[in-house]
Amino acid sequence: MHFVVCAKQIPDPETPPSAFKIDEASNSVVPAQGFQPVLSQFDGIAAEAALRIKEAAGDDTKITVLSMGAESAQAAIKQVLAMGADEGVLLQDAVFDGGDSHATATVLAAAIQKLGDVDAVFCGRQSADWDMGQVGLLIAEALDWPVAILAKDVQIADGTMTTTRVLADGFETVAQAIPAVVTVSNEFGEPRYPKLQQIMQAAKKTVTTMTHDELGLDPGSVGAAGSRLKLERLYVPASDMQVELIEGDTPEDQAKNLVAKLVADKLF
Hints:
The protein has two domains: 2-226, 3-Layer(aba) Sandwich (Rossmann fold), CATH 3.40.50.620; 241-268. 29% of the residues lie in helices and 25% in strands. The protein has helices at 41-57, 74-83, 101-115, 135-143, 196-203, 212-215, 251-264; strands at residues 2-6, 9-10, 21-23, 28-30, 38-39, 62-68, 87-91, 120-124, 147-157, 160-167, 170-177, 180-184, 208-210. The strands form three sheets. A nine-stranded mixed sheet has the order 11-10-9-12-8-1-6-7-13, sandwiched between helices. Strands 2-5 form a two-stranded antiparallel sheet. Strands 3-4 form a two-stranded antiparallel ribbon. The longest helix has 17 residues, at 41-57. It starts with a strand and ends with a helix.
């Protein structure tokens, strides 16, 4: 079998708020100094799902890591390679820049078709930066494949993908023929941490690069030109919150003073 894991590189979620900046002129996040971008945590979980199925199968299943982004996104690819994936492909082209979920899925789906003989695509439930949760569904739509979302368990056997999905009020088990797409939720469990030797081996692996020409894509269908969502403004909300401490010798006094304050301000 052949699995594809979609991996996205995002700003480090551990970046302190004081270091987080927005360039409002270009509607973009300014890279924080001293903080390297990281693999989206949900994509790491998706990779873990694919790896567990490969290990359980015990056959010659291959896992290809697919990412769209700048040269730095190779680090995200190599993290999944260190976990145990076999090959990495970076979709890097200036015409891919500024794309929304639809444009991104268009590129990823074209790359999956280019790879050929893919049996299953694993995506995180959503990216950990924009949190839209649309790309996996849109890849399935572009490929005309069945899709299961928010999976807490994934199994593939005898040409069927069986997933247990997380619902608002419980769980649902569904079965669908492969090839298929699945988005894996955090309920699946933590991804493995690669050993030092695996990290060193992954660092030596070559990541293949593909452009829109190699994928046969019209520049007008991808990136900002192919986006269906227009970002009007990206900004850090201003906070003008004011705090007033209610004095009092005892909790009862503080409560009385609070009520008096609310009544005086006509809030109670």
